Amino acid sequence: MTNNPEARPAPGIGRRLYRGFAFALIVGLAGAGLSGVPALFIQSIFVGEAQRCIEAIEMAEAGGDVTLTCPDEFTDPPVWLPVIMVVGGTALGAAGGLAYGIASPGRRARGSTPRAESPWLPF
């Protein structure tokens, strides 16, 4: 067997699946991290509004002159919304990573010749 890169066969289905699962893990973790930021932001909006409504209810019960305009949904903020956002970001990242890992060619595609790349920096 020679060390000629052109003599190497194309990667098989096992190698592509392995690479797909590796990319799915990496991109899925990145997707979970990136989708956690908006999930926490949206949850903070619900928690802040729930705290304002609870304070208004306590003021009204204490005999204060407060008009209640709080819907019942804000007194009990949804816990499922941030979880769904993080799971969705993870699933989309993992699916994209899996598709990229399976569909992308290896480091050298079959029949390619090694060549020097031109520098992309102007200096």
Q: What is this structure's SSE topology?
A:
Elements: H1 13-61, H2 72-75, H3 80-103
Written account of the structure:
This protein has 123 residues and is mainly α. It contains three helices and no strands. The protein has helices at 13-61, 72-75, 80-103. The longest helix is centred in the first third of the chain and has 49 residues, at 13-61. The relative contact order is 0.21.
What's the story with the biggest beta sheet?
Answer: none
Mean pLDDT: 77
Helix content: 55-70%
Stretches where pLDDT is under 50 for at least 5 consecutive residues are none
Our count of helices gives 3
- Taken in chain order, the helices and strands follow as HHH
Percentage beta strand: under 5%
Distance between the termini: 41 Å
Radius of gyration: 27 Å
Compact summary:
This protein has 123 residues and is mainly alpha-helical. It has helices at residues 13-61, 72-75, 80-103.
Name some characteristics of this structure:
123 residues, mainly alpha, 63% helix, elongated
